[in-house]
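Reopening closed ticket. The problem is back. First fold of the pair:
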Amino acid sequence: MSRLPIVSGRAAAKAFQRAGWALVRWRGSHMILTKAGEEATLSIPDHHELGRGLLRALVRDAGMTVEEFNGLLPS
């Protein structure tokens, strides 16, 4: 199993957007992303670093694997 890197909230949101998720609103310090056909809504905090547990939960809620998410991050 691959390890999740430490990334910012904005970098994570960009990776999810590459996977088809759309930023629908930015409320306070949280970015809200949705995807057509998906029941889940992703709420990503705009922090400099996201904890690995939170990031893993977001990846799971998005229906992705860690490897798929890592492939969407810039090198």
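Second fold of the pair, where the issue appears:
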Amino acid sequence: MTNFNPAILEAAGRHLGVEEWPGAQHNPTVQAYFEASGGRATEPDETPWCAAFVGAVLAELGIENTGRLNARSYLQWGAGVSMREALPGDVVVFWRVSPDSWQGHVAFLVRFEGDHVIVRGGNQGNKVSDRAYPVSRVLGFRRAVEADASRRPVLQLGSRGPAVREAQERLRDLGFFPGHIDGIFGPRMRGAVLAFQGENFIDTDGIVGGVTWDYLGFASARPARAVSASDLRETGSRTVQAADQGQALTGVTTAAGAIGVVAERTDEASQALDGAVGVMEKAQGVLVAYWPVLLVGACALLAWHFFGKIRDARVEDARTGKHMGR
């Protein structure tokens, strides 16, 4: 069974300090918590949002939430654990007003301190914070579990965790995502998913759901595309154009510099050669007189090679599709 707890507590910690905005304006981050938990993205941030925060953190990790904004809905979520078995990252549900009322509070367990439990949650002092509550107010502890071993979580922009890493690795193997495998579903990951869906005739929504997971399982690696520097030059690739201009400028500059040095050194070279005796002395005289020309030529060769490598790298990205994941 997958242990989601460390990832849950870490994800919740990334939101510490998010708070309601005073006045008529509403914090869009708090409003996004409502949307991720089945509510409206326009919900005022004064609306109790502890359950919205818990649901948003779970959704961020690709873990199914209750889809409700009622704190007590989490009493039916996941698997129940006793207080003795409770671990950091478990969901804790508290009663408010009375144990029999519909009102409650929900957050993630951090630790126990005497007769209090420290939890990390939203709407605690109108912000995401770590706060102590009496153990006597706990209604239950719940733990995230995999609903079905054959079912993977739905991943979308903002999701994090092992499932995202798995999808990134699979997309990389198929030639769609050459980026850093970090378990974060960002814009580059979404671009890779859209490209994969488009080439496999799946609905292009940028979300890794059941169908996309299935296709990731049996799809073949994308073939390398036949692309040349001429093709990219014709389509207006700025990288290739810049490399071409760099090489051209290198050639012109080198030629001009060499001509100038030769003109300047002609008399010196003539004197060195007139006084030289034997082949070795004459060769040495030429090297001494024209060493700046040789230096300019060597630098030009390095610059020419550098611009060529840039162009070759751009062609390789276009051929393999790597640029789509960066």
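Update: turned out to be a display glitch only; the data is intact. Residues 320-326 have pLDDT under 50 and may be disordered. The chain has nine helices and six strands. Please close again.
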